[in-house]
Amino acid sequence: MKSSSKFFTFGLVASWYSSNIGVLLLNKYLLSNYGFKYPIFLTMCHMTACSLLSYIAIAWMKMVPMQTIRSRLQFLKISALSFVFCISVVFGNVSLRFLPVSFNQAIGATTPFFTAVFAYLMTFKREAWLTYVTLIPVVTGVIIASGGEPSFHLFGFIMCIAATAARALKSVLQGILLSSEGEKLNSMNLLLYMAPIAVVFLLPATLIMEKNVVGITLALARDDVKIICSENILLEMMLSPDILLQERMHLVLISSVGFEVLGNAKGAVAVVVSILIFRNPVSVTGMLGYTLTVFGVILYSEAKKRSKTT
After folding, report:
1. d(CA 188, CA 197)
2. pLDDT of 65-117, one tens digit each?
3. Range of the domain at 10
4. Chain-centroid distance, C-alpha 193
5. Global confidence as pTM
6. Is the residue at 64 inside a domain?
């Protein structure tokens, strides 16, 4: 029984890593290397997949109990979260057009810094002084990585910072807007409602800002026999909902520490795999900066846990 449980956990971790890193690398390939310059459409594909698979996971597979929206106000709160979530994903995809995955992940690792800032500004919640101290290496590491990044692009950097900040803002808003016991939703049910709303937001944006993207996609599929773009987008839709796997990871790994360790390791794996695949130039300074940022995130997580136990 123990060996089968370990095998199941290992398979779940491998699936989570493959899904998350797969989407990241596929988006990078489509938006940068292949030249498919439609990040909003890609995000809409992502959200469509999340809508379908979250419904299947909850309604058919019964992975978690179905939770319903109880009021119009709760629906408006979820819509606000969905809008911020859309911004974070779209900006993240835009940044992948201009930045290598390794640098993108280094910037994304600063999420705790923005979370602490928004939590303080919006809720006046103060952490222990040691928690704020641990954010210094988080920010310092990105500054060092930026200075040593051979493929630095200012617009891509701004978009990635904006995506990271939006992701942190969504996390803080979720704690504020859905704080009452009657409104709390687990991550899978929240995704079930947020994803379709995101599609509603993204569809008009796609039609206005990325005109004839469906026609262009079909034309690329007809012209390119070796690399069919539409099939890549279908693969994107199949890989996207790693949040479903995250929910399963939370259920299997009782310790939140284990989940956080795996989450930090996932970013490092994504960096290594992306460098091996895309052969983007890296510098010793850039890697040192990224390592410092990850180390700061680990210290931050540890400081947060200690402050909760005291």
Report:
1. 15
2. 899 998 999 999 999 999 999 999 999 999 999 999 989 988 998 988 998 89
3. 2-125+153-251
4. 17
5. 0.85
6. yes
Question: Pick from 89, 158, 80, 169: which is nearest to 123 by CA?
Answer: 169
Beta strands per DSSP E along the chain:
none
Is the pLDDT score of 183 beyond 80?
Answer: yes
CA dist., res. 36 & res. 28, Å (int): 10
| Residues 6+ away with beta carbon under 8 Å from 24 | 96, 101, 104, 270, 274
The string of pLDDT tens digits covering residues 236-288 is 555 555 655 565 555 555 445 555 666 667 788 888 888 888 888 888 898 89
Extract the tokens encoding 24.
Answer: 């990241």
In a domain, residue 298? The reply is: no
Q: Residue 120: CB partners within 8 Å, gap ≥ 6?
A: 126
Tokens 């705790």 found at: 112
Q: Considering its fold, how many domains does the chain have in total?
A: 1
**Alpha carbons 92 and 156: distance in angstroms, whole number:** 9
For residues 128 and 303, the answer to whether their CB atoms sit within 8 Å is yes
Q: What is the pLDDT of residue 254?
A: 43
Mean pLDDT, to the nearest integer, of 294-301? 85
Is position 86 within any domain?
yes
Angle at 148 between CA 92 and CA 169, to 5 degrees: 30
| Any domain includes 198 | yes
